[in-house]
């Protein structure tokens, strides 16, 4: 592929003291690689990083070409040639080639050849699923020792960049899977409006919620929070979602369902994990049967104030034979139920103060009679304003259920209107 002209290239002069400071060189090369697109796959990312390196350092190091090779059964095949192609190594390099012998078995950076055509340096990149070689051709008379010093942090930074990209792709795939576990749309329940949000602190998180129809007049609701956040918590949250749905299909009542889940979590390889769950079964007459496994008490905004459903038991996981009790409450017309995870109430500001359950209760009280989607927006906006510009330390989820004041059926929505769910993926 044609290279940019010398006059068009930005220059980064590497001073003598830079060559004696590998850490400084590493960060300098990292900045160069930041220009490579994260959306590229592993091979394209490697070529992109090689292009960026060649453009920024070829004048300082006397680089005339960079060659990228990928390991295949027949040897190493050249996948890209940047710069001068005359005098390039063979398109396919045999693994037994004396040129590669020390590079493949040694520390991964080596001077492969020196001569009138200029020195040829080699870097070996060991990835979990592939192996690549990066060969650097220097102009005659260039300082090969200085270039070799730079090649070591180059190899380290390039390996880290590729690994970061691969992990990023895996996390994005995991996030897609987790989004697929959330309900695509809220099932209709006569006389009620339901909305929810889920906002992970990282790419994926340990919070989940679910709303599922049990029969024409009943829906099951759940909000769960696996300990920690990130990928390990997301894996536990996935199992909880699947376990809840399987329990519903098999006709298990609330307490037995939670007891079975607790046994599964306790006996799993993630036995140091625990999960808090609020699970309920809501009927169209406003009756809510529920069980609480160590979850923050949901709030109900009633005409005379806010009530916290404080009855509950232990979290799922720590004990092999946990037992749970079932409770009952009633949602009167106009009441609003808000179930949440502690990522909301434990959000901290710069002074170290928590957002807190009392502040949340005040917001819920003011939101009585407000559409659930608007209640979600106010809760999230209030938590954000409490600690402006501060990243979320924990996953945060909210489920809001409002019983209509007079209507006995769910209000019809305008054509194309969709319920809003903040912070989580749009469906």
């Amino acid at each position: 592929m044609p290279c940019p002209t010398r006059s068009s290239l930005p220059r980064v002069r590497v001073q003598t003291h830079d060559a004696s400071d590998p850490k400084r060189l590493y960060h300098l090369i990292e900045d160069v690689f930041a220009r490579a697109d994260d959306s590229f796959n592993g091979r394209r990312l490697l070529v992109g990083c090689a292009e960026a390196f060649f453009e920024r350092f070829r004048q300082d190091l006397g680089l005339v070409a960079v060659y990228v090779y990928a390991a295949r059964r027949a040897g190493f095949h050249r996948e890209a040639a940047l710069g001068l192609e005359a005098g390039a190594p063979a398109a396919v390099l045999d693994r037994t080639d004396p040129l590669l012998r020390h590079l493949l078995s040694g520390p991964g950076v080596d001077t492969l050849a020196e001569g009138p055509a200029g020195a040829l340096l080699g870097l070996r990149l060991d990835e979990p699923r592939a192996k690549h070689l990066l060969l650097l051709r220097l102009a005659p008379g260039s300082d090969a020792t200085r270039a070799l010093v730079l090649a070591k942090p180059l190899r380290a930074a390039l390996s880290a960049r590729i690994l970061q990209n691969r992990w990023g792709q895996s996390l994005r795939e995991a996030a897609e899977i987790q989004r697929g576990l959330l309900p695509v749309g809220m099932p209709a329940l006569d006389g009620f409006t339901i909305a929810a949000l889920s906002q992970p602190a990282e790419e994926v998180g340990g919070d989940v919620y679910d709303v599922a129809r049990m029969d024409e007049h009943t829906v099951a609701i759940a909000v769960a929070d696996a300990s920690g956040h990130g990928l390990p918590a997301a894996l536990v949250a996935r199992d909880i979602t699947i376990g809840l749905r399987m329990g519903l299909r098999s006709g298990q009542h609330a307490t037995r369902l939670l007891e079975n889940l607790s046994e599964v979590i306790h006996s799993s390889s993630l036995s140091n994990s625990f999960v808090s769950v609020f699970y309920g079964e809501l009927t169209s007459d406003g009756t809510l049967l529920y069980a609480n496994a160590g979850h923050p008490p949901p709030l109900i905004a009633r005409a005379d104030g806010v009530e916290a459903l404080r009855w509950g038991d232990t979290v799922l996981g720590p004990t092999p034979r946990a037992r749970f009790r079932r409770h009952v409450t009633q949602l009167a017309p106009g009441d609003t139920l808000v179930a949440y995870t502690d990522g909301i109430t434990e959000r901290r500001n710069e002074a170290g103060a928590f957002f807190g359950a009392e502040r949340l209760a005040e917001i819920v009280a003011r939101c009585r009679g407000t559409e659930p989607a608007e209640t979600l927006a106010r809760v999230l906006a209030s938590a954000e304003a409490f600690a402006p510009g501060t990243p979320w330390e924990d996953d945060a989820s909210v489920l809001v259920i409002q019983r209509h004041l007079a209507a006995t059926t769910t209000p019809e929505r305008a054509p194309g209107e969709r319920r809003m769910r903040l912070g989580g993926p749009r469906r």
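Residues 182-403 form a domain with the Phosphatase 2c; domain 1 fold (CATH 3.60.40.10). The mean pLDDT is 79.
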